[in-house]
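Dear Dr. V.,

Thank you for agreeing to look over these. As mentioned in my earlier message, I'm a first-year student in the group and I'm still getting used to reading structure tokens, so any feedback on how I've presented them would be very welcome. I ran two proteins. I've put each sequence directly above its structure. The first is here:
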Amino acid sequence: MRSINNIYDNLKGDKTIWFLITLLGLCSLLAVYSAIGHKANIERSGNTEYYLIKHGLLLIVGISAMYFAYRFNYMIYSKLAPLLLIIAIPLLAYTVLFGPEINEARRWFEIPLIDQKFQPSDLARLALVMFIARSIAKKQDVIKDFKSAFVPLIIPIVGVCSLIAPADLSTAALLFVTCLLMMIIGRVSMKYVLLLGLIGIAALSFIIVLGTVFPDFIRLETWISRLDGFWNNTNPGFQIEQSKIAIASGEIFGVGPGNSMQRNFLPYAYADFIYAIICEEYGLTGAFLVIGFYLGLFYRCTKMVTRCPKTFGSILAVGLCLNVVIQAFANMAVSVELVPVTGLTLPIISMGGTSILFTCISLGIILSVSKYVEEYSAYELMEEEQAITEEKVDKNIIGRNRLKYENYY
């Protein structure tokens, strides 16, 4: 118990965010272990422990990456953003053109030697959010100017989203909306935000036209069938039907951990539709708890951002948080048929590789910002106490100390 208390005391940053991440990780282990049963029966002769251990190791790797990202001064991510974007764009282009087709999509490529798949869109999302936060922070003095502020923002946004869209339209749309919200928060003129929205619609229209010419590279038929299934209530699709049955079976308190029946029928119950299995096994109680975890994360990030004196830290934290939370609610909305099927996973909870890794890195960067906010608040409090206790305190010295501290970050 003492060692746990020591770890808790030594962790800097928002303790509530640390706690929420821990709860999401525990929820992930329980949900994946239960939902993986059907896949284990087909591929591993019922050996669910194999997938539990594999998923547990992925969580450990992700949490280690999160801690590593948290340890860095968050201003280093401003310098890394252009480099990561330069790496991500060729990887996206390579995947669209030459990546293996898995489940009718070119989203991954194989990493040699370790026999693992890598999804470049996860890296691109992180890189683009970091780059947009950096650009908005550096352009604050001319943020209302079209040429100086808006043009440098729209080129990477439209470019990256256009490369992601052919194989994964939902991820591209999620990233595009996140960038729009970041621009609004960053005080970019609303007329430019609306203009970017129109440019995004034009880019999507162009991709749809290309899809009629290059159907092997753009999943136009999949998009049409999913939209048709959503709007046509008489044909909602097998996945949605099974998801509804799972949710209805859960009622208020659920059928109990490990007692799901729909995991045997629902495709990708351990990934895209894991929320339906949570609803079945834990009922509305568990469903609202999961929603509460993500809302709590959003609330703590919003509260932290209002206290951060640096523009880059504020925009970076809120952008990464929005990217995670919007994806979570999009995934849950699919399970209850509020939106068409997207293929988005439930962040941290769903079984996955690069998704868990880059989500954890995003959370680590958020915690790095919160660590600075916490230290800055403590520094301000120390100054106030010093000013109260010492009647002849030299305000110029305090000002120089504050400036020195802020420049460090």
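The second protein is here, in the same arrangement:
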Amino acid sequence: MWNKPGVRGDWFVDAALAAAVIAFTIPTTLIGYSFSIWGGAPDELEIATGVITAAAMLVRRRTPWPAIVASAVCACVTGQVVPMILAVFSMTAEHRVRQWQYVALAMTAVYFTVDYRNPHSDHSIYLNVVRALTLIYLPAVVGTWVHAYRRLIRDLRIGVREREEIAASEERRKIAREMHDTVTHAVTAMVLNAGMVRDAAEPGEIRELTAVIEDKGVQALGELRHLLTVLRHEEGDLAEGIEAIARLVGEAQASGLKVDLRLDVPQGALPRQISHACYRLVQEGLSNVHKHAPDSLVHVTCEVSGDQVAVSVVDTPDRADPGGKTIRAAPSLGGGYGLAGIRERVSLAQGRFFSGPTPDGGFVLSAWLPLRFPHA
């Protein structure tokens, strides 16, 4: 507990208040300046009352009642009202006691009585009331403002911490999505071509397949380097957009997939974030086809419709060529992060996402995204 600077400072303040109470009570008793509202009180009682009131200041942050009761008794026994001022302020600044107004009024009445009975007072009821309200009730009111201010600061700090945690979590998810989509697609293509190399017999075919593996590795490294550059400098655009969808389809066709593309998006019509989300959806869809349905017919569509862009990857069983060449399926590493990442991308863009089987035994991955990227 003592390692916390705030706690050590609180103890210092409480000790200073306790010392102030001692300074206001015991010396006046020793020099004969104190008085009791019912007459003379033994010095021992006045000193004990001052010490108890000072000790009550040390626990005022835990509970206000010892300081309230002790300060009221101290005022009646010694005639010293300063501890009451400290007690009513602590009552509202530290705890906001329920029905604090009535407690403050009761303490105000005690102050008025002590001040009126004080042999050194002016005995003016008006001035006694003004002093009682000013020195007792007003500190209690000020304490409520201090309490509200402290609570506001505490809530703001909690809110800032929560927002920082949410922002950090979102950034981690963004990085995870980009890393997954970049690495998974490239590695899937590399593993698929490596398997084809194992089955190839012609040297020319082997050289062609290894060249594809090399190209995909270079491409993956380039995308990762670009992603790291964006993350380090907090600027720049994401790597690919709809202009790279045709390349994805071409690579899929080169690996043996039967893919046709319908791309009808005017150049510059999409914000970079929306364009990148379309690219990633097509990339994920083609990767899934490689893994689960390499012999299917695949239809890739990306077109503007009204105020949104529709993008989809649909595969259907190839019943027209049941005896055709079998295409090796890419290995599935599991995890299920791909679809989750696409769903998050679409949700962040305030679009609609759908994935699921089709009636003819295929699978569809589709999204509808607004033409304008939404800002918070």
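From my reading of the second output: The mean pLDDT is 82. Residues 62 and 209 are 75 Å apart (CA to CA). Does that match how you would interpret it?

Kind regards,
E.
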